[in-house]
Amino acid sequence: MPATVKRINTWSSPRNVSTALMYSFAQRADTRVFDEPLYAHYLASTRNRVLHPGAEEILNSQEQDGELVIRQTLFGPCDKPIAFFKQMAHHLIELDESFLLRMENILLIRDPRAIIYSYAKVIPNPSMEDIGVRKMHRLFRFLSENGRLATVVDSRELLARPPAILGRLCSNLAIPFDERMLQWAPGPRPEDGVWARYWYGRVHQSSGFEPYREENFELPPRLEALAEECRPYYEEMYEAAIKA
Hints:
Layout: E1 6-12, H1 18-26, E2 31-35, H2 39-45, H3 55-61, H4 66-74, E3 82-88, E4 104-109, H5 112-119, H6 128-131, H7 133-145, E5 149-154, H8 155-160, H9 162-172, H10 196-199, H11 201-204, H12 221-240
Parallel strand pairs: 1-3, 1-4, 2-3, 4-5
């Protein structure tokens, strides 16, 4: 067991490239990755549980007490020098958030129109709480004010220039960049949560970060209004994102 472990949270909204980034870090020999350890806690705490495919299976697969997850998983034993936790911002509910100040934190952001368009294909009519953009912005302010925000990564920038953005990300985390982070074998991975079959179909077909393609996301009026409500939060975070 390593004497010290660097513990990294990557906080994201759903339907971002967070799974691809987790797979990227999983290629490092010095890193152990963990897929959404607070998902069951979130489902046990939210009235929106019924909207999530496979909810009961997820609840049965993980510890539902978020405080126990923090103590036993986020700060539990790790057999490698780096522990990488893929996290969803909206999972961070009904918890004492002071634990964040003892960890490295990355914010992974995406244009809210793209998030909403993709999320609505699985769960129709998402709310601000479902997509987590306002929560991401609150984390951005909190972590920045307390000096615990390692970096902000925008998915468009990452997909457009993976080596450069990953290199900057690693530098900000004070870890060496590893070329193996750019590729992985297609298909499911052992670190996947049980929810992978509902959400990870596209990333399972990939072997690296897919090239960025500009798209026009048409939204119905209600979701268009949600996207506009999200935009100021996203734009403030994007100003702080690393650029190649």
